[in-house]
């Protein structure tokens, strides 16, 4: 990439100054990953990894329950969409027969093919109908999808350049990395120095500088 000049010292970063091309930081503390869910009403909730797993499990249970209820209401009988079709006629006859197994055994191979093809079409139509009903029911229940973003907070110390780390009083910062990548999580180590690029300052509170970054 193009040369963007030396890293910008923390003391030169302003909350309203826009994205910071590069700055040098020492990582003091890496906090556990948290999960922020934006709810349909616009509010949000932050959970730990354990609580997020529970919330996801509960969400899947509720979705499964709605899907199962709708599927159990489906009529397995022959549909009367196109009764002129050979397969539909055979289906009706089998439904009304006293001994359907005996009747099945007496079908010709052409009749069996017609019946199987009709059954397959009916099954697909039923599945599509169920999928539509489930989708609508989930929307009504506010369960269409979850809007969850993982984030990682890293407490850092701003450094002017690597060798001055011990000689000056360094400003502290808290970097929030939204959607951190697996590589970022593996590469970040407490006590190490990094060149951070593309940080966005959000608020300036006494001695702490709050910055945001995107992982993916």
From TrEMBL:
PANTHER family: BREAST CANCER TYPE 2 SUSCEPTIBILITY PROTEIN, BREAST CANCER TYPE 2 SUSCEPTIBILITY PROTEIN BRCA2
One GO BP annotation of this record: double-strand break repair via homologous recombination
Organism: Aegilops tauschii subsp. strangulata (Goatgrass)
Tower domain ranges (all copies): 36-76
Protein name per UniProt: Tower domain-containing protein
Superkingdom in the source lineage: Eukaryota
SMART domains from the UniProt entry: Tower (SM01341)
């Amino acid at each position: 990439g193009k040369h963007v000049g030396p890293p910008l010292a923390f003391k030169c970063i302003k909350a309203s100054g826009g994205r910071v091309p590069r700055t040098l930081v020492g990582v003091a503390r890496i906090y556990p990953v948290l999960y922020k869910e934006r709810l349909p009403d616009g509010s949000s909730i932050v959970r730990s990894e354990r609580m997020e797993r529970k919330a996801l499990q509960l969400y899947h249970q509720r979705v499964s329950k709605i899907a199962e209820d709708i599927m159990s209401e489906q009529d397995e009988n022959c549909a009367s969409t196109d009764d002129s079709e050979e397969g539909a006629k055979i289906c009706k006859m089998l439904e009304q027969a006293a001994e359907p197994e005996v009747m099945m055994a007496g079908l010709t191979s052409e009749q069996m093919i017609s019946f199987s093809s009709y059954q397959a079409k009916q099954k697909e139509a039923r599945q599509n109908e169920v999928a539509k009903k489930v989708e609508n029911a989930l929307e009504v229940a506010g369960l269409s999808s979850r809007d969850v973003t993982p984030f990682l907070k890293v407490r850092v110390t701003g450094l002017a350049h690597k060798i001055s780390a011990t000689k000056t009083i360094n400003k502290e910062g808290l970097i929030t990395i939204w959607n951190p990548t697996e590589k970022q999580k593996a590469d970040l180590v407490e006590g190490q120095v990094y060149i951070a690029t593309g940080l966005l300052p959000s608020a300036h509170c006494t001695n702490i500088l709050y910055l945001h970054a995107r992982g993916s």
